Here is the input.
Amino acid sequence: MKNTLLITTVGTSLLEKLGREKIKVKGALEANAFFDSNLYNNIEDYCSKNKTADAETTYTAECSDVTGVVNKLKSLLNYPIALPAEIASLSKLAPNKDNDKVVLLYSDTPEGVFCSVVLEQYIKNKIVSAVCRKKIAGLQSEDAKKFQSTGLPNLAEEMAGLINSNKAYRITLNVTGGYKGIIPYLTLMGLCGEDMRMVYLYEESDGIIEIPPLPFNLDFALWNDNRAFLQTLTMVKGIYKDKAQLPVSDKFKSLFEVAASGAITATGYFSLLQGLYSTAKEEKALSEFGRGYILAEMVRDVDKKKKLKAWINNSQNIWYGDNIPETVDHSRGHCQRLLELAAQIIKPIEAKSKVSFFTDDELVVLNLVLWFHDIGHSGREATKGFNDKTIEALLAGSDLPTGQEFIDISDFPTVNRDLHHILGFIEALRDQESKTFYRFKDKADEAIDGFLHTDYLKAAIYAYLYHRKTMLKIKNGVASSAYTFEPLNIEPTHK
Here is the structure.
């Protein structure tokens, strides 16, 4: 059984109870045995006049105010109702004194420093031996903007570090103390953590409430869709001016900060999610591929994007039946890498130049070309005497020209490899006749059900027919010497 790491948020209930003459016990006010006006006033006066850094120097284990409050706490063993929230909850959780650990997350305030030092000394003596304090820079209640822009990301960074570096422990997140504003964020982090327990001490009662684990986790498919940029954005500088420009899904833009210089840094939330993703990947709990949307997201027209995504959803396995599996991968992984490469080229250029290089129709075709371009490795038949007339006949859905016929070459891997652009062209068009595999329809009024129009298919596979830089000429049905296409200087299609 794993030992426990108790991550406990620290509030100021210790000071509040120290300065309260009476406390509520079962609905009635009673004298507070923890009350000490001299200590309370001394501490409050110091905290109101000094900064966090000063308090870190002043409030040590040997400080008289610290030892005074610790001693008062020790005297409350028979009066637990007066204990601060952090101690009361930890005592109820009853950790193993020698084997478990406690981490105290405290605010960036003098009061936060004092309370955390007192709690550290008491817990070390009475509850568990291994205790440490972690200040969360920017976590305070006076500046809401700083709380959100600095405090919360730093809280996430610290949480990510604790979770990822303590995999040998079962983590219990105790949110009884601390600012109530951080509870939603900690709750989400707790839901994302594997085998993480979340608890708090309910109000003035002595009952520990446990937040049950729910079957929620990171959208791994969406993460994989964006992995080409999630893994590289922090190496980029000077291209993107703000988070809105970042070439990732809107859900992931908040995981990064863009400086005035254009430098990009990942937030603590990213570190936390990256840890979850890495663990799932190591455990083979997920596919390395996303949904295949990385380039489809660039399509601006909502209806066209929806139909393209529907086509992608239906086309995850179009490479099955590869005739030459002994060679390098020509299926889903290869397609994913090409989609990512295209996005990595196009998105930064468009962000920098503020020019759209492709219309929506061109983006749809580009997506289809990349998905289709190696399906020929699963093709079976070529035609004897393949030429321009063959292409025209296939595109028109007509019979083959006189003297031509389909020939099964699936038993000849080398020929299959050399002619896979032709095999794929034929495969896609012949399948289109039955409409059993690819989602395309001929009539515009049929497109409303989510099918792309056949014109997209024809444009994509026609481009696919010439997708290889070096291809064999076909003359009289025989593959002859290879020829190489010259590189083209391509300008944006529209500005």
About this structure: The chain has three domains: 4-211, 217-290, 293-484.
